[in-house]
Every structure is written in structure tokens, then in C-alpha cells.
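*** Residues and shapes ***
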Amino acid sequence: MKFLRGIIPLLLFAALMGLPDPGVFVKAETEPETGPGTEEEAGFKLEAEAALLMEVNSGKIIWEENSRKKLYPASLTKIMSLLLALEHLQEGRIALDDSVRISARASSMGGSEIFLSEGDRVSLEDLLIGMAVGSANDAAVAVAEHISGSVEGFAELMNEKAASLGLKNSHFCNPHGLHAPDHYSCAYDVMLMSLALLEYPRIHRWATIWMDEHFLKGKIRSGEVFLSNTNRMIVDYPGCDGLKTGYTREGGNSIAATAQRGKSRFLAVVMGSPTEKERFDAAQMLLDHAFSNYKSVPVVKKGAEVAVIPMNKGAPHEAAVVAAKNLSLLLPQGAEEDYTKELKIFPFELPLKRHQKVGELRVSYGDGERAAVDLIIEEKVRRAPVGTLFLRMLHRLLRFGR
């Protein structure tokens, strides 16, 4: 007992003043997979100013042309507007059953519309459906005003979100995409905001509504609306479940089209096609190429627990780390599916915030190709009180002494 009385204070001091919890490195077992070889030039000849093809869950771009060229996005703008609305919805700042009063400004919008009148009250969900399906400009203004109080305030929010997503060739002046000289984007940036929007499964439910002959019946002064989807690929192209079309005279015809078959989801962005038919033809050609030549191999899903790590000085005393997003590997059709996984936990200091990055899941595959996904703490971890640390050390000592 004299030994324990002497050593316990020293161990407690070490626990309180010691170094941060060290990182952990674990090599996982080999699993099926290989990566694609050298990418050959696809040689697409599309009627478009710019285009891009990529696989969603791997984040790999398969082909691109003029993807950073600044162009007028037209109603592809609404991808950003819908993204902000769904983010606010997830955070509880707004609700789908919110009753939104239609302003004079919203009711006066031209172009695609759902014929809202000043003073109408429409649910937020109906407005978002009107944007996603019918590309309604009046609905976009109403949503913007509901979230930010004004179109100008919402545009500021759009540009802040653009910066956080890494959109370097975009600037937004409005939530709908009607022409403004300083309102622009590019195919690469449209890809980035589309990927962010695809994090919300609800968008597929809205974007795949083909038509509603009696939309808003009895809810608006104009009576009802024949709502039809501007994206005919949701019925013409197998697996297509989004995302958004756009057209203005200055910007031409554009589309961000996504389709999933099996485990593979691809995204094609086409901007500045001369005609509506040519934009759909271009998107279909890109997606056909992707499904014919590539496959996606899932590694881990967003939110899946990857490991439980000890928190020697934390409360709780251990914490789960999860994948921050989906991770898949892009492979040629017919390729074997061999890969190795490595778990890397970085050194950290307490406390840890919820969803704070603490490491990476790293994957090696194919001919030296690599991929990674951030690992985040599922729940916050605080510093354990001195009394808790003392009891832990005492428990370890008693176990050691047995």
C-alpha cells in the first residue's frame, strides 16, 4: 500500500499534464478492387460551350472541356438556391409547412413561373417543388425572401456558400438565374454545387415529379397550375433522377443531369448548347460513355462507423469516428476490385467538437492510385474532470496489481 500511496499522485500528474493523445495507424485487410488505367481521350464532339462528366461518390472527373470557362448559368442557378433551402431546412431554421406570403416582387417575375399572385400564401414545400420541377422564378424569389428577407440578402448568402464550396468562377446576383451581366458560373462550379445538393435525398423525390395537372389547386388566386418537368431525361433516360435544366437567350441551354444504375452514380454538366435537344443529346452521350466504360465500387458510406478510439483524458473515455461522406472507387468496367484500406488518426487535443476531423480513411488501389475520406468524431468529447481521471488511474493500478 505504501507503494500505491506514493505512485498514484505521480501517475495522476502525468495524466493531467501529459502529451496529447497520440495518433493511431492501423493497416486494414486487403479487399477486392483495382483502379482504372491511363484515361484515354474520349473524343466527344458536343454542341456546347462547356461540359463535364464525373462519378459522384468517388469525386473523379472522367472528362471535361472548358469546365472553368465563365458562362451564364440560367436556371442552373436554382441548384444553389435549392441547396441553401435544404440546408436551412436541415438546421431547423425553416420548415416545409411554413406559409410563405408572396410579395409583389415575386409575383412580377417573368420567364418560367407557377403564376403566383401578390398576397397568395403558399407552403414552402410547394414553392421548392415549383423550383425543382417547373424552374419557377416567382417561387425562387419567394423562397429567397422567406429565408433572407430580400433577394439581395439571399444573393449574399449564395456567394458566401459558393466561397465555402470552393466555387472560384461563380458570382450570383439573384436566386433564379434570369440574366444579369455579373451573374455567372462554370461547369466545374455547377458540378460542385450539384454534389452538395445531392447530399440531400429529398431532391430526388422533387426532381422526378414528371407532371401535376392540378398543382396548387385551391391554394392560389390563379386557380391551379399545370406543372411539368423541364428535364425530360427523368422519363427518357434509365436511372436519371435529376437534377436541373436552364435556359436564357444569353446563356443558351444547359443541364446538370445525374443518373444511377446499380452502385454507380454519374453526373453530366452541359452548358451553352444552342438548342434544348442538343443539351439533352450531349448529357445522354456523356452518361452513356460513363455507364459503358466505368463502374463505382463503394468503400464506405457517409456516417458509417469506421473505428472507436480511446479518449484517455476525455469524457466519454472512447469515441466513434465516422466517414464524413461516401467514398467509392472509379474503375473500368470488367476490372477486378482489389484495394487496401489504412486508418490514420491524427494527434489531437481535447475538447473535440462534434463532427471535428480527427483522421482519414486512406485507400490504395490499381496502379498506385489513392483515395481518401475524412474521419470525424460522431459526438463531442470534453475534457474529463480531475476526479474522473483519478478514478481511471486508480482502476488501472488496481488491475495492474492483481
